[in-house]
Amino acid sequence: MNKIGLAAGIAAGVVALGAAGYAGTVHVAGNKVQAAFETSLNELKTTVPALKVTKQEYSRSFFGAVATTVIEFGCGESGASNPRLEIRNTIQHGPFASGRYAAALVQTELVLPPEISKELGKFLGNERPTLETVIGMDGSTDSQLFFPGVKIQHDKGAFQMEPIRAGFNLDGSGQTIKANVDLAGLSMSEIDGPTIKLGAVQTRGESRKSPTYGWLFASGTGEGRIASISASGGKAGAPGVEFALNDLTIKTVQELKNDLIEQKISYTGSGKVNGKAFEKFEMEVGVRRIYVPPLVKVVNAMLDQLFQCKASLDDQAMLKLLQSLEPELKKLAKYNPEYGVDKLAVTYAGHRGEIGYTLGLENVTDADFALPTEEMLKQRATIKAKAKLPIAWLKEAMLAFSPNNDPAAVDAQLAGALQMILSGGFATSDGTMLSSEALYRNGVLTVNGKPMPIPGKQQ
Q1: Running DSSP on this structure, what letter comes out for residue 404?
Q2: DSSP string, 240-309
Q3: Quick check: pTM over 0.90?
Q4: Which of 53, 145, 309, 353 would give a disulfide with 75, using CB separation of 3.0 to 4.6 Å?
Q5: Rounded CA gap, 231 and 240, in Å?
């Protein structure tokens, strides 16, 4: 064989080998994707019997597949009266799905009856929601969701929402998910009512799956920004409230450690109420030391009641369920749980005021679990509250409600009110601020460190 023939033979062999390798990879990728779809559907049918999978087809070709699933909602017999949802997944097998190195590219769509699709067209125009997912060779998934803008006009008002774009990325181990959601804005209005507007919204977050409790109690962080929130107008002849928040930033942290979950949410921004601008708004909310094992039992029991088609969902059934869960709910108190609006602060006219409170249970013992719930709360409940308010704010408020708008008369009234508050021990003052702290513990109320009678309670 001459050199040219040998080279051609080698090239042909390489091409054939590459084609065989590619074919094998496509086959493996296709098998993985099909197995993943079948597994997820089986989990759905087992976990939520109220959702019936009435149709499950997986039509596979060499380079791709089409998976069609029809889900029916309802606990009775399958029938035409039950709501149905048809989902079609068009799958391109890897390793080069639509030009990308991946196990598969999945395009998901809702298959709607023509009459419903026509009705949706009135609100969505020619666009429809889309979901595209890239499945990586390592098992990771990257999903991109698009929901078109909505316009609804009716005789009493209007609703308009800009498109929503969202992304969800699950790593190959299935343990960490990253998400982002973007909304350009929305508005709602009524002819004889308020107009509410929401500016651009951006959110980002990351969650880590709990080895014990799954995604239900995942640890993670998140951050969001809302450009503006406003409300204006009202019923004709009635005083309306003009309200606006600007540059609102929201941060969240949730951590699960040693079966205790803690969460902190903080808000900052600026705004205006009825023409009065405040330079800064701050709020911090926290949940601490919530014991997860009994909470899991409560959540599972509630989901079982809702989705397992085992019992009625009327008020009596739910009340009976809550009564049966009372022993588990009590166990939530085991490690001094606490909820608090730790800080609600506003800076207005150069002055900063702040309030905050916490509600919790302390030093609950196993013996306390045997007590009636009301008695246990009386003995172990702890309430803390604090406030710092500028005296200048009180004067401005009194002037606003003064019939004669007389500063001298208001000064005299303010002095009398302050004297009563301070002499009664309800607050302390440095001349510019009123400060107060209250504590309820072991059935005793103290204000600024001094015992106070509790209204309605025998002393």
Answers
A1: S
A2: ---EEEEEEEEEEEEEEETTEEEEEEEEEEEEEETTEEEEEEEEEEEEEEEEHHHHHHHHHHHHHHHHSS
A3: no
A4: 309
A5: 9
